[in-house]
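User: Fold this; tokens only.

Assistant: Input:
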Amino acid sequence: MSNDNSDLKLKISPRQLEDAVCYAPLQDAVMAVSPPGTAKSTIMHRAARRMGYTYRALYTATMEASDVRLPYVEDGPEGIKLANWAVNPLIPLQALASRYPKDKHFLVNLDDFPHSAPSVMRPFVRSIYGDGSERVIAEYPILDRVRFVLTGNRESDRAGSNRLDTYIANRLVIFEIEPDVDEWVTGALNGFTMPVFDEGYAEMRARINKAVASGLPDEIIAYPKWTKQVYNFSTETRSFMSPRSLEQLGRFIRAYETAGLSDEIIAAVAAGTLGDAEGMKFMAFRKLRDKLPDVSAILRGEDVPLPGSTEILFILVTSIIRAAKTEHVKACAKFLQRLAETNTSDGQPVGIEVSAYFAHECFSGSATALREVRRQPELLKWIQKNGRYFTG
């Protein structure tokens, strides 16, 4: 597969980071890394202003483990001693909701997080990822009106950063920031004024939430089928492909496409979730969406020309599986047979493996509306010719 994403960078500017924070899915924490002095914390504050959030920074680099949670012993029933946790009142917990105005949302920046001791980082892990029922500090739920972001320097900056444990990094979407001359000059000419509240933000946030709730994009589901892996763990890279990071990337694509953000920012998300190399590979795969045939026409049973590309066919089949209903059984049986007969321009077969994927989903997988495909006459022809590729 040729990579025609050479114009995309894996680093984003401070202004792009501001957009990335504003429009990120609510359950995911964004982390910005860059050399010292590149205004990461200021950008987080700017994003909070645009969203109408109250900004709060927790300088984790100066914390000790006991500043996050402190064990103590209390008396239990029948003289039994029970272990419990005391927590820092600066951390916004649901139990402390009375301290926070009911109409306020908060953006909490774990500032210089990579500079923290591992014993400080680890208690925060469960607070920075997931919805309100999952996010906890020492089993105390985080206030549901809180979003977390993180900032820090890279290991290569020799600024005292520690390498994140892989299980922590895999819960974050990590953006690498590169200052932009034009952005800085424009800001300097304007006196680096803070942005005002975006009156349309609540409406945009509702649209983003709806898009994220609609499920993962087709290309996220098709990509592991094409690469034949859903996990590509490496201790050598900051980010790596996993079921969790693929889901994160899918949520960000839904959110950022809804907000109208550029492919450059989505490419940075792909790098920050899957790793640089895998991220660029995914972006090249994603670009093939533009070459998809008309799914609606296929579901009507029309003889739409099928592309001679395995990558596109995997995305196409995923789209059809998600769109098809029971009334499309005959059209999908016809499509199954045509899919297996698809060749490249020079006559090389490319559709057989993809047709086996489609058959599996129709027979016993997610395409429950298409179970009756097995009773269609086209299926017998497909089994006679291609049954050996079917695995169940």
